[in-house]
Design goal:
Blueprint: E1 3-7, H1 12-23, E2 27-32, E3 51-55, E4 70-73, H2 80-85, H3 87-108, E5 111-117, H4 144-164, E6 168-173, E7 176-177, H5 188-197, E8 202-205, E9 211-213, E10 215-216, H6 217-228, E11 235-238, E12 243-245, H7 246-257, E13 263-266, H8 281-287, H9 295-307
Parallel strand pairs: 1-2, 1-4, 2-3, 4-5, 5-6, 6-11, 7-10, 8-13
Antiparallel strand pairs: 9-12
Helix pairs in contact: 3-4, 5-7, 5-9, 7-9
The chain binds nicotinamide-adenine-dinucleotide.
Nicotinamide-adenine-dinucleotide binds at residues 7-8, 10-14, 31-37, 57-59, 74-78, 93, 97, 115, 117, 173, 175-176.
Length: 310
């Protein structure tokens, strides 16, 4: 039986990964410090066989006395309000934390996957963004704590691959959404749904002409699994190339929730990217993967989750 360790396993994506691997018959070890995640996301797994939760901050070395086949590093604050509130922790999670998990992977000869991000492209000058694009990142602005930590993590992961022959994967995630996001998470979809369901004003930062590309979590998890099981050591974009403006997203959410909310506009955050769209030709070619869930279908399921009491 294969063993997988998922750091950040109590978060939005991590908890869905715990479910996914558990359902495939893996022994799942979930590591989390609950800084932005929640025990609620994994409560249904806690008393099951083949599932172990370890409360741990990855900025400290982790010792675990079982063999491991796969280590997935998803432990990092991920929403802008979270990483702007936790700048040093974010830097440490994406540097010392990644190093500690790479060391663990090396000692166990495990496959290591780093959850990187489209943010490593910064405010891109090319669109869609292929993996070969090096990015346009402000190295000292407020968002740099996240972007540069992820860029360091990628470089460190490649260093372990080159120097020690560690079997590594670099996953570049574009915006993902779905159930288990927190209503106050601060990212566009949970924000808009939360405001629409309460008939409160929907706040758009800037004029809403900036674009994003949203991938439903089920599609993302399938892409992550295919990448993990592949032999690709170079970065791979896993995201949905269906690009739309933030204003259009807000309008769709108002329609789907039958909300009376008005859309209001506020100042744009520093270094907010103007466009964001993955070039997924590499994933299509090598993983035979592309997303299949339509935005309105994924949003309807997410709205249903937000509308039902926890
Ligand atoms: N959701 C997205 O759209 C998206 C996009 C790009 C990249 N990512 C990456 O995917 C990963 C998961 O993102 P998410 O959206 O599920 O966010 P999330 O905040 O829901 O999950 C992150 C989890 O990591 C845990 N964590 C944070 N720092 C930790 C530490 N030092 N030690 C142990 N646990 C720690 C948190 O408690 C949380 O459970 C992150 O690494 C993020 O950068 C996500």
């Amino acid at each position: 039986m294969s063993r997988v360790l998922i750091a950040g396993g109590a978060g939005f994506l991590g908890s869905h990964l715990c479910d996914f691997f558990w359902n495939k018959g893996f022994d799942v070890f979930c590591i989390d410090n609950l800084s932005t995640g929640s025990a609620h996301n994994i409560r249904h797994l806690l008393d099951r066989e083949r599932f172990t939760y370890i409360a741990h901050d990855i900025i400290h070395p982790l010792e675990i006395d079982v063999d491991l086949d796969y280590i997935l590093n998803f432990a990092s604050p991920a929403s802008p309000p979270d990483y702007l509130r936790l700048p040093v922790q974010t830097m440490l999670a994406g540097s010392t934390g990644t190093y500690n998990l790479l060391e663990l992977a090396r000692s166990k000869s495990a496959v290591f996957m780093m959850a990187s991000t489209s943010e490593i492209y910064g405010d891109p000058e090319v669109s869609p963004q292929p993996e070969s694009y090096w990015g346009n990142v402000n190295p000292t602005g407020p968002r740099s704590v996240y972007d540069e930590a992820k860029r360091f993590s990628e470089a460190m992961t490649m260093s372990y691959h080159r120097e020690f022959g560690l079997n590594t994967r670099l996953l570049r995630i574009f915006n993902v959404y779905g159930p288990r996001m927190r209503p106050k998470d601060g990212r566009a979809i949970p924000n808009f749904i939360d405001q629409a369901l309460k008939n409160c004003p929907i706040t758009i930062y800037g004029d809403g002409s900036q674009t994003r590309s949203f991938c439903y979590y089920e599609d993302e998890i399938e892409g992550i699994y295919r990448l993990l099981m592949s032999d690709l050591n170079d970065p791979v974009n896993i995201g949905n190339p269906a690009e739309l403006t933030i204003l259009r997203l807000a309008e769709i959410i108002v329609e789907l929730t039958n909300s009376d909310s008005q859309i209001v506009f506020q100042g744009l955050p520093v270094d907010d990217p103007k466009v964001r769209c993955p070039d997924i030709s590499k994933a299509e070619k090598h993983l035979n993967w592309r997303p299949v869930v339509d935005l309105s279908e994924g949003l309807a399921k997410t709205i249903q989750y937000f509308a039902s009491p926890l």
